[in-house]
Adenine phosphoribosyltransferase
Amino acid sequence: MRENDDLRVLVRTIRDYPKPGIQFRDVSTLLLDGPAFRKTIDRMIALVDPDSFDFIAGIEARGFIVSAAMSYALEKGKVMLRKPGKLPGQSVSIDYALEYGTDQIEMHTDAIRPGQRVLLVDDLLATGGTAMAGVELLRGQGAVVDTALFIVDLPDLGGSAKLTAVQVEPMALMAFAGD
């Protein structure tokens, strides 16, 4: 039995979504199980040193769920990396490529001060486009980002390697190889 197999079985695979050939790893089925969601957050927290970061940045949308729970448990501030047009204050944005299109995220310009350490959190790491955009956006505002944490990693799609190449350590509770 692999580590976190009790959680892994709760991640649903949706074939050919959002386009043919993609095997979408859907964590919403894991989130439906309250005790499993709690274990997920507890185990993610156990992977990091809370003293190594000042804030947790969550990427909209499912990354908000995970990062908010971690922020609450660790009593850390949460930086929101949002879709365009959702933030009321002055913001900065970045465009990025996804495995099946393009997108954009933004953050408030005053969310962090230069030198503050930020843990980047999202539900899933695939090609790394969204995570890399989060790192660039945060670092562009002066944040120190050296760790990114995910529920699921799809290592064959290269996201882990891209993060490692920019000195960000990717960590995940589980990996689905060959997808």
About this structure: The two ends are 20 Å apart (CA to CA). Residues 34-46 form the longest helix (13 residues). The chain has a mean pLDDT of 94. The chain has six helices and nine strands.
